[in-house]
Design goal:
This protein has 427 residues and is α+β, with helices and mostly antiparallel strands. It folds into four domains: 96 residues, Rossmann fold (3-Layer(aba) Sandwich), CATH 3.40.50.20; 70 residues, 2-Layer Sandwich (Dna Ligase, domain 1); 133 residues, ATP-grasp fold, B domain (D-amino Acid Aminotransferase, Chain A, domain 1, 2-Layer Sandwich), CATH 3.30.470; 95 residues, Phosphoribosylglycinamide synthetase, C-terminal domain (Glycinamide Ribonucleotide Synthetase, Chain A, domain 4, Alpha-Beta Complex). The chain contains 14 helices and 23 strands. Strands 16-15-10-11-14-19-23-20 form an eight-stranded antiparallel beta sheet. Strand 1, helix 1 and strand 2 form a beta-alpha-beta unit. Helix 5 crosses helix 6, helix 6 packs across helix 9 and helix 7 packs antiparallel against helix 8. It is globular, with a radius of gyration of 21 Å. The chain starts with a strand and ends with a helix. The structure holds adenosine monophosphate (AMP) and glycine (GLY). Glycine binds next to loops.
């Protein structure tokens, strides 16, 4: 099989790495890819915001399957275009993508399907939003979310009435999130640990791809601003067999049923983000693609014919237990550039990549890197994900950080506590 992987981050590097090691795969093409990906795939330039250009690439490369990394091309209808043309692709169409890309759509879908999620109101006007804030007693914070994609910045957890009003005005009057903020979801604040569960869906069935926990804040002990994710581990020790069964029955099956009823059977990865509250698990959000950095810790644990199973998903013929997850543990540490998450510091030479990749039980996935005169340099906020794999979390952490110690670039920052929650089960 020849496979096209779309995207340019560490998530896509992990996908390419896993596919390149698959005996059924003869070649991987990645577009646009990055210097790390170029070690395992042929990279081709492409503008992922132009579905016709991506289709032309898949055709000219004569690939058997296309796998989409990020959500943005899915929101633009890339998978619909491929399916209309009869080309197999892993990723939902526009309607499925709206489960991630529109919070209003996603919350209404959950309400319709009886999927447990925080109580919410949809506000189309400033007056409606302010009335919603006025009605809240502030015995607990209020959560204000921009409807559309806002680069992870569209969620405000307001502790006071003043903060909530300010958030509403910022979105609806000042346009802080652009058009993404012209409609808001205002919802109850939940508390509890967050876990993520991953599935591969073929429109009718879903198979488990294990679980993970992300670390969204920039600094140790979950302090500082939110980021795209500073590290993750897999599996999550908080996901018991009962919780997995609950998630399948109360979340995943209703998503599949709801999407079939809506006329677009859901094909692709489904990422369910859950908060484990005192009154039970609640869905915080869906993502319609793999997580980053979660893919980097989930995929190395995945055993079985990955490429064949992805094609089966794209063609609506998944079989139960096609893939299993090894019982070992993965810990992935994101190495970020100086200034991240507000900005980044490009062009810094990265040393020790080869040595890190050769450290025992370690894997190095590239994200924001670029090649300049034969030297790999920084080119993004999140630069690398370094993964340690071992039978226990303690050893996986030790392996990840031993490999991290071999990498150097000016301004490199990373968390020292990725995986610690899995050791102590403190959430
Ligand atoms: P989202 O973009 O919906 O995933 O939200 C980003 C982050 O905000 C989540 O990962 C949660 O940590 C937090 N969050 C979102 N919704 C809620 C909620 N209803 N209660 C508490 N925290 C929330
Ligand atoms: N790690 C969070 C995400 O991929 O959205």
């Amino acid at each position: 099989m020849k496979i096209l992987v779309l995207g340019a981050g560490a998530r896509e590097h992990a996908l390419v790495w896993r596919l390149a090691a698959d005996p059924d795969v003869t070649a991987v093409v990645a577009a646009p890819g990055n210097p790390g990906i170029a070690g395992q795939a042929r990279t081709r330039p492409v503008d992922l915001t132009r579905p016709a250009e991506v289709l032309a690439l898949a055709r000219s490369e004569a690939v058997d399957l296309t796998v989409v990394g990020p959500e943005a091309p899915l929101e633009l209808g890339l998978a619909d275009v491929f399916r209309q043309e009869g080309l197999p692709i892993v990723g939902p169409g526009r309607l499925g993508a709206a489960l991630e890309c529109s919070k209003v759509h996603s919350k209404r879908f959950m309400a319709r399907q009886g999927i447990p999620t925080a109580r919410f109101a949809v506000c189309d006007t400033l007056d409606a939003a302010l009335a919603e804030v006025a009605a809240h007693p502030f015995d607990a914070p209020l959560v204000i979310k921009a409807d559309g994609l806002a680069a992870g910045k569209g969620v405000v957890i307001a502790d006071t009435r003043e903060a909530a009003e300010a958030a509403v005005r910022a979105a609806m009057v000042d346009g802080a999130f652009g058009t993404a903020g012209s409609r808001l979801v205002i919802e109850a604040c939940l508390t509890g640990p967050e876990v993520s569960a991953f599935y591969l869906c073929d429109g009718h069935r879903a198979i488990d791809l294990s679980t993970a926990q992300d670390h969204k804040r920039i600094f140790d002990d979950d302090r500082g601003p939110n980021t795209g994710g500073m590290g993750a581990f897999s599996p999550s020790p908080l996901v018991t067999p009962d919780l997995a069964a609950f998630t399948r029955a109360r979340v995943v099956e209703p998503v599949l049923a709801g999407m079939r009823e809506a006329g677009e059977p859901y094909i692709g990865f489904l990422y369910v983000s859950l908060m484990l509250t005192e009154t039970g698990p609640q869905v915080i959000e869906f993502n319609v693609r793999f997580g980053d950095p979660e893919a980097q810790v989930v995929l190395p644990r995945l055993d079985g014919p990955f490429a064949r199973t992805l094609l089966a998903a794209a063609e609506g013929r998944l079989e139960d237990d096609a893939l299993t997850s090894a019982p070992d543990c993965c810990v992935g540490v994101v190495l970020a550039s100086r200034g991240y998450p507000a900005s980044f510091d490009p062009g810094r030479a990265i040393e020790g990549l080869e040595a890190a990749g050769q450290a025992p039980g370690a894997l190095v996935f590239h994200a924001g890197t670029r090649e300049r005169d034969g030297q790999v340099v920084t080119a993004g906020g999140r630069v690398l994900t370094v993964v340690g794999r071992a039978p226990t979390f303690a050893d996986a952490m030790a392996r990840a950080y031993a490999a991290v110690d071999r990498v150097r670039f000016e301004g490199m920052q990373y968390r020292r506590d990725i995986g610690r929650k899995a050791l102590t089960r403190v959430t």
